[in-house]
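Q: Structure tokens for this one, please.
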Amino acid sequence: MKRILLSILSFCAFSAIGQSDNITTQLYDTYENYKESSIGKRRIKRTDIQPLIDKLSTNDKFKVNTVGTSIGGKDLSLISIGTGETNVFLWSQMHGDEPTATQAIFDILNFFDSPDFKKEKEAILASLTVHFLPMLNPDGAELYQRRNLLGIDINRDALRLQSPESQTLKRVRDSLNADFGFNLHDQSTYYNAERTEKPATISYLAPAYNYEKDINETRGNAMKIIVFMNEILQKYAPGQVGRYNDDFEPRAFGDNIQKWGTSTILIESGGFPEDVEKQEIRKLNYTSILSAIYTIAKKSYESISIEDYEKIPENDRKLFDLKIVGAKYELMGNTYTIDLGMNQIEVDYPDHNSFWYSSRILDQGDLSTYYGYETLDASGYTIRQAKVYPETLNDFNTVGRLNFNDLLKKGYGYLRVTNFPSKKINSPYPMHLIGTKYEVPDLNLMPGINPTFFLEKDGVFDYAIINGFLVDLKKNDIQVPNAMIFR
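A: Here is the predicted structure, written as tokens:
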């Protein structure tokens, strides 16, 4: 009898997901029609979304209200659509450097403003009222930093409510008495789905509301929605979904909003290969969130079994941007075999509108349980120090006329330059620039250093690693966004 019951539950869950499969495919395939092109980079600010909010405020389909202000005096806006009794509340960017879902929210708003999907939108808007609070931490977004101007993590301020942003979030949630809540974040791109090499492109959590991790109807509904969304993402990012540990955090908003009676779904946008600006992940947010809203409106989630929630792999953090495997490394007269894991670390320019890379070796030794977005088997290769080009160059213009491919094939990784522009903080070329008095230290591989060296076999340099970026010298294709300047 138990086996029969489980089969029935599994069939019901499959049917619920299958009912929305068609709209999901259509949403994904037509996404470019609704993508808000004015915010195509991650480092968006309040001034970037204000014209979009102003436009919505003149549109009769939407209600736009200022519901609070940040510490720095920036408006916090709530955008609502629909007439249904079920309230769905989405808030994003409580951490200023986590903007992926903020972009997706404006794509979703464009969808609701379009004449397309008429039948599906009527079903949504008659059953639900959907509320969006994009960019909860606009001061943090201005500086592209996690915390607000008070220096606190808003997501750890649900008890004291010290900051006005936290007070606004609590007040809006309470005033709506929201039935469902989507807590939208970005996570590190170095998370992977447990025991796999695949990045956790999207990670979920139905937060616990007590230390015992009990599952009541409120939390159970959140789990059902997550199971539904996971099934959607497996079609577009197979194996690239993770699940956060659900230990109760009494200060966190997600845990408390769950406790206050809103079925809360935490969504974290991680990494996706060759998607530096997270635009494919933005698309996955758009598709999966809209599909989830649709299944809430249709109440088809109710038949989904929560048993599949625990089957989603947990998040792990064992990804590097570049992993070198099995290279020979000579040290103090001995030869060792070593793996290297390195990350291409973003450093903001002073205006916080864009960034450059200052890469680091993160770990070395036996890294057989780790993975890389890019992995090179360097068995048979020996690590060699990058050399300094023997000629001192006058300025940047002189440097730009060099044949970098030829220089790299000869093992040169540094160029000595007499004059640097005072405001230049990194090298736009695939080689490091050094001042006339700078002495390049002997290569001593160690976590924390900038990864720059060559891989040599039989007297030939086949690969260069410049500022943590791999260059295949057998090809005429140098992909190094920037190198360093050492004055």
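A few notes: The longest helix spans residues 217-236. Residues 64 and 79 are 5 Å apart (CA to CA).
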